[in-house]
Amino acid sequence: MSKPSLPEGVEAPRTLDGQLCFALYSANLAMGKLYRQLLARLDLTYPQYMVMLVLWERDGITVSGLGERLFLDSATLTPLLKRLQAAGLVERTRGTQDERQVIVTLTAQGRVLREKTGDVPVHVFCATGCEMDELAALKRQLEALRASVLETTKG
Fold first, then answer.
1. Which among 13, 65, 89, 107 counts the fewest CB atoms within 10 Å?
2. How many domains does the chain have?
3. Do strands 61-62 and 90-94 pair parallel, antiparallel, or not at all (unpaired)?
């Protein structure tokens, strides 16, 4: 990684509150607490909820496809998927054309769960105190930030 440089006259912040990473980290902690409260009644963790969101968009996805979509590796996903399978929400089967692939599909119970989570995004939206256009802009900025940081860390 080459040595970065700031524009002339600009200094890097050296306090905790001046760090972008801390703002992201503490916001993530706050969102995690909110999601824990919202998902507890459904016996779901936040990572499990993210997996279910992907499956509700596209049922029958491979474990590697899930990992790409969620930015998670298979070592993280496998135990998570095992717990979802034990809960009766998903099934994991070997691919018919390539047995190295594991396909994750929703069970009937997993499909029904989608309706039970319908109010989660509403609660999250209300908790932000933001307008919809503000959240959409923030989401775009965070996605661009993620892409830029991932590009920088390739290698």
1. 13
2. 1
3. unpaired
